[in-house]
Amino acid sequence: MSKQNQRDLREHNRSLIMETLLLKQPLSRTDLARETRLSKVTVSEIVSGLLESRNIHEIGTGHSRGGRRPVLLAQLPQVGVAIAINLAPDETTSLSTWLDGSPIDREHQWPAVVDPASAIDQVEAIYRGELEALARCRDAALPPIVGLAIAIHGNVRGDDILFTPYYSLAGLPLAPQLRQRLAVPVWIGNEANFTALGELASGAARDNFVAISVHSGIGAGIVRDNDLDVGRQGFAGEVGHTIAVPGGLSCPCGNAGCIEQYASERAIVTRWREVSGDAGADLGSLIRASQANDSRARGVLSQFIRYMGILVNNLSRFVDPDSIVINSRLTAALPQLIEEIKAEQRCRLGEAAPLVPSLLGDPAILYGGIAMVLRRHYDVRRLHFAAFRPPDTRC
Amino acid sequence: MSKQNQRDLREHNRSLIMETLLLKQPLSRTDLARETRLSKVTVSEIVSGLLESRNIHEIGTGHSRGGRRPVLLAQLPQVGVAIAINLAPDETTSLSTWLDGSPIDREHQWPAVVDPASAIDQVEAIYRGELEALARCRDAALPPIVGLAIAIHGNVRGDDILFTPYYSLAGLPLAPQLRQRLAVPVWIGNEANFTALGELASGAARDNFVAISVHSGIGAGIVRDNDLDVGRQGFAGEVGHTIAVPGGLSCPCGNAGCIEQYASERAIVTRWREVSGDAGADLGSLIRASQANDSRARGVLSQFIRYMGILVNNLSRFVDPDSIVINSRLTAALPQLIEEIKAEQRCRLGEAAPLVPSLLGDPAILYGGIAMVLRRHYDVRRLHFAAFRPPDTRC
DNA sequence: ATACTTTGTTAATCCGATAAACTAAGTTAG
DNA sequence: CTAACTTAGTTTATCGGATTAACAAAGTAT
Questions:
Q1: What is the dihedral angle through the alpha carbons of B36, B39, B41, B46, rounded to the nearest 10 degrees?
Q2: Which domain holds residue B36?
């Protein structure tokens, strides 16, 4: 039902050109015609529109390839701001970027939002606080806000918050209310799904992949054809609640043997405390002990490896992705874990999917929110974050 | 890259009209304009083309709705033949239908194709044998063959046979060779994926669903947006090789604890033989014993229920489909098993996906092959099989 | 018989993509 | 240094496809 008249056709080709430019800028009009297989005339027309709407600009001329020099086109990033808010169970973080994904200021922390009665007010206050922080760090006026993305630690489908294990936001009309109050496009989504968008935009993976996020629970974002697949009820990728041990440890979800009872940070730390006899032990001490070749720590990690191996195997069998991205503090600190998880893949049905570490690490959720905003703003699927500006150059 | 010029637009709208007509025939031109949201003129133009190419015909006039009576349009089924061949490990079956999916003759049996050296010749012989059988049962000449689909019990991606556990067809250029020899469109695909297409065309499920097939192994076809998702290497849906028991029974695939070691027909019959002490016991005797309330049989079935419950749970968490179709001889004979598998769903993350039995049963693979041919022939995604002609009216 | 409805076609128009010709601005070879 | 060639981008003419509006065809209702 989507593309059936000429206006849709034009819209489609505009998206195509914008996406190509965002991915491979700078490009000339002729480059764009070659890449998109559109005629030069069509490209020139659409480019005129994009120039006029100040989405792109001409940045000068490139090197001649034996004739007239090409006029190079590039995105105009500082004409708008994208904002992402991560409603984590224990704190709220926020980040604002230009339209190329480069941060304007550092990441900000705020109190956790847990009370459903005041949740919408709180998020509104955080949004306004973020704007003030931006104003303080910039003397010039801010360009328009092109969108706000809010990461929910729970299940989301469209504007509906369906289930939130860590707080009680289910059923709250967060997105519609904020849209009205802030007069800004608002997108909400599951945290693991945002992470997957972040990995897509950072270049860790593309096309068809799964991004696994390990923290207190285990979630995943499934990307098919450069688009999120959230399933019928927004539960696609709830891989923490796949059963790995029949009749195993009971899980708050109601089932027994869910894999997140064996391989989540919480499960691993619990096990590490048992093994080490230190009730105050945490993920950091486990990592340090492992680096010091502590055999008890290695034992705990072998459990992590084993169950992550099962998860990766099962993911490969179910969805057979092009690659699997892992975002976890354990694999970030101990890169060899990735190889050990790979070594668990013994199924001879084809090669195992390439396993790659996240390029974004902890702030992946926020960058994923930014990606959510930008892909809607530009009406594209893939985009490419500009190199991250080092912290010292920020305000 | 697909739809960017006007020709693509026309092609898209032609497909849209054909798909709508196949699903809801008979329809008038005005009905089609309303359903597709295209203008009456565009519909009339495209319909003229479809009439001229004898894909559809006018079957008369419908009831007046207060004005001129509509001219009803319908598919013209007997202008072409679709053929499907199922290369099962123990036998080969074949089926031919008209373009509405109604069988021309009964299903035919042939010897199993196991020798890679002669496999292509054998399949060619079976195809020609099927044509002869059709000629024998019809005095009139056959219309053209619009395509041949071949179900492979193994992994397929495009024309490439990647892995076949039961015979050695991997790497064989079956499709390209037959295309050349028979001068007919040839499609090959995984058996479970074909089954999913069959369920789609039979109306058992639509849009986004998973069709699980249980026999000697366990496979699944994943349908997203009415299209098959076969994954990077054609392994998507190889759910039999997801691990359900860490360190469990070893599987020929190289892993341990694969779910098909616990819930496939082979696994269940093995267990039934152990429990009953009868080395000749089979699935039929298990079903009969269960119907006679034999407690040992019920025990064996409870294992089936338990592991199928895990599989359904994990599928729901990974892909969150609109529904899950189960095609197995056990659930077909003992429908209450479906309810018992449903009862295993204890995860409170949203409602469990509706679990429905296959409408096609055993010949689902063949009908799925037919669907494969027809959807390519008409360039549509969804289609709807005409009611099956009862066996006694066939030749 | 007259007025109204619905179906489907004809005619006029609009919109978007393309090809061909052309202008602009360079490089290269002699 | 100029003539010939190349590449970039625009102008012009044309084509293909979708839509609107008007109309013809064929019915119903009173």
A1: -20
A2: 6-75
Residue B1 has pLDDT above 60, yes or no: no
CB contact set of A227 (below 8 Å; sequence gap of 6+): A381
Q: Are residues A135 and A187 in the same domain?
A: yes
- pLDDT at position B6, please? 87
Contacts of B121 (CB under 8 A, 6+ apart): none
pLDDT in tens, A172-188: 999 999 999 999 999 99
**What does DSSP say about strands A227-228 and A218-224: parallel, antiparallel, or unpaired?**
antiparallel
> Does residue B168 belong to the interface with chain A, where contact is any CB pair within 8 Å?
no
Backbone angles phi, psi at A263, to 5 degrees: -130, 0
Q: Which residue's CA shows the smallest distance to C1' of D29?
A: B66
Which pLDDT belongs to residue A78? 94
Residue B291 CB: number of other CB atoms within 10 A?
11
Q: Do A101 and A242 fall into the same domain?
A: no
pLDDT greater than 80 at residue B394: no
pLDDT band at A349 (very low <50, low <70, confident <90, very high): confident
Tens-place pLDDT, residues A120-178: 999 999 999 999 999 998 888 899 999 999 999 999 999 999 989 889 999 999 999 99
pLDDT digits (tens, 9 = 90+) for B7-34: 999 999 999 999 999 999 999 999 999 9
Q: Percentage of chain B surpassing pLDDT 90?
A: 88
Other Cβ atoms closer than 10 A to A176: 12
Using the Cβ of A115 and the Cβ atoms of chain B, whether some distance falls under 8 Å is answered with no
Which residue, B19, B43, B75, sits at the end of a domain?
B75
Q: Is some CB atom of chain B closer than 8 A to the CB atom of A43?
A: no
| Residue B353 sits in the same domain as residue B372 | no
Task: State the CATH number of the domain containing residue B254.
Answer: 3.30.420.40
Protein-to-nucleotide distance from the CA of B19 to the C1' of D15, whole angstroms = 28
Angle between helices B283-291 and B265-276 (to 10 degrees): 60
pLDDT tens string B210-264: 999 999 899 999 999 999 999 998 889 999 999 999 999 999 989 999 999 999 9
Count of domains for chain B: 3
Q: Is there a contact between A318 and B243 if contact means CB atoms under 8 Å apart? A: no
A41 CA, D13 C1': separation in Å? 13
Residue closest to D26 C1′ by Cα: B68
